[in-house]
User: Fold DNA-binding protein from Amycolatopsis thailandensis.
Amino acid sequence: MSEDKDVRTEFGEAVNMTAGELEKWLKTDESRRAGQHSGGGESVGHESGRRIVTILRAKKPDLSEEDEKHMRKVVGYIHRHLAQRPSGDVEDTTWRHSLMNWGHDPCK
Assistant:
């Protein structure tokens, strides 16, 4: 059980957007353009963002092993992506937009 708490704690620290903020962001053109698209469809990050909204709105006892697995994936992505921060103002960059799709706004 402590492993579950660890991933939940790390997820809570890495994801700094609320479910409402993330849901609103995912509706923007910038969100839809950011990230890797396979076959012209939805990007991996955009799809992840929709799942993150569901996780953020879920009660902790209702989280599945698959949810916790996704939470670990989110934490890993955010940590790796933050390590690649470009120089200068990141306000309107694809780098920031990709991170926001994963629930982290580096400008917060």
Q: What stands out?
A: The chain has six helices and no strands. The mean pLDDT is 92.
